[in-house]
Amino acid sequence: MAKTVTAYWNDLRDTRVMRSIFRGAPGDSSLHGALAVQGNVFLHLASVKIRRRSLAFGATWYLGTLTLATFLILVVTGVLLMLYYHPSVPQAYADMKDLQFVVSAGLFLRNLHRWSAHAMVLLVFAHMFKVFYRGAYRAPREFNWVVGVILLLVTLFLSYTGYLLPWDQLAFWAITVGSNLISAVPVLGAKIRFLMLGGNSVNANALLRFYVLHCVILPFIAILFIAVHFWRIRKDGGLHTGPQEEHHG
Amino acid sequence: MSEQKDTRRESFVKLGLGSLAVAACGATVFGYEFLSPNVLYEPSPIANAGKPDRFPLDSLTADPASGIYIVHAAEGFYALSATCTHLGCLTAWKPELGIIACPCHGSKFNRQGMKTDGPAPKPLPWLRVWLSDEGDLLVDRSAIIAPNQYVRT
Amino acid sequence: MDDPKPFVAVVESDTRKAPLRVAFVTRRTSPQVQATDDAYVMTWPEGVLRVAVVVEAAAIVLVLLSLFADAPLEGLANPMQTPNPAKAPWYFLGLQELLHYFPPVVAGVLIPTLVIIALIVIPYFNVNVESEGVWLHNRRRRLQMFWMVLLALILFLVVFDVYAVLAPTLVIGACMLLAARQLIRVSPVQRWLTSRPLSFWIMTWFLLTSSILTVIGTFFRGPGWSWVWPWSL
Lengths: 249, 153, 233
Known about the structure:
The complex is a heterotrimer of chains A (249), B (153) and C (233). With 249 residues, chain A is mostly helical. In chain A, 67% of the residues lie in helices and 1% in strands. Helix content of chain B is 18%, strand content 31%.
């Protein structure tokens, strides 16, 4: 009788090395499931058990999860793209051409990064509307809604800073118009624009600042607030599921 | 006697919070100064347009490299900024229509920089023009002057 | 004062018999907001697996898209030449369309700021906490308010020629009036309309308006931000 994959896995999992990493023997009981979550630094942001109704597709359309998925793809592809990108003028544009024609899988990675970015912005808006229409912003989840709005702004700002990095005509003029809009803010507008661009116009300083914002500062802020967002879901009693139906199956 | 003198602990706490507040203000000021560049590697705002006789009478010449228009009117020379006052796009001179047009949102300006159409809030600014010692026309793109001031040669 | 607790506290050094606990959770201090008799599933492995499947699905769709569609890259940035038209990324095109009607201070600063503030305060305002149909209480007074607000809005939009926003305003206004009908026999659609709270109407108006503005900015604006028909390009 051949061993099943599960049997092989259980044997591997039962070795001394694996037991030192994951603690405890393998098993399927709820105790093992609980330990798997509680004993894992990444997973223990979640609770050990979740309500079955919050997993239903119709409840959330999984929009929040999809947004997180696109964020993860963006981080991975973004870091890989950083290996071939110099944030200087006009080298940045030359690097874009490099990625498209010279770097193996460069075109694919750049495409993936760009489409995931558009998808993430779209999903973040869709998630917001879905949360609103199912009333999941009501008490006790008010603060999580506010955290969500902050994440929306961070996402838009991430997309905006990333938009400049290819240093093509599309990038340059979109950011020029955008920065002129900022200077329309009364009193502080011109100063804010000067700080954001590191100068009076969109030039090398602006590219570098946007690069640092896009690759370091904003992702860091995003991850912080995402963690808060998930923690609040847990602390507010899990996902909002609405009243139960009268008859049970 | 409504107030009691602060205990030593209270005074210490106030001193600590006070110095933290001062430090925070200092950090903010230093942070702002750090973020605000003191040296810019941008081209000088003063553009050299060359000798005045390059520009025939009643001509409007665009210099996209410096973002200005040099106009030789009957009254003399003047310069307009070519940056649209709406959102910063570069305008273009349309000689067949006799207007300066912005491609972004359809603003139109006449030869004096006055807006004739579109969402631009202000006319194209007049820039300071003068003759250098060698007789070249110099334009300071950062110096906006009142309109209808001409440089005669 | 003391509830009879369903357990007995012991102190023992044998961790198998008396394992360490982090906190006692009695019914009154439970993080659950309302006691429900919901069925639970384990996060590991069911929950994590579901998330993994969703991430996989998203990855597959995006990878397929990336294999067959290229992201755009125009010419090198040239400060001396503005492309015509110079368009922002799609999620800002609604704003750019609004710029066509209002000055930058209004369309670029004021309106986005107000929208963000409005979004943030949503959960703290009663209008969003009510879940009953807007016409089910104080119908006459609310109808009067409704007409005043609607006519003021229509006037404002017509004065500034913002027909792009006028159209969805009229549509939502018409739907709200349909919802306000007092009928003897109600169809399921009518029942659904009447049960929508005010927050629903406001948010749907916002969703419709921003979608239309974005679609116009994307497909119906050409050089000089002039009106173009997309099928003629």
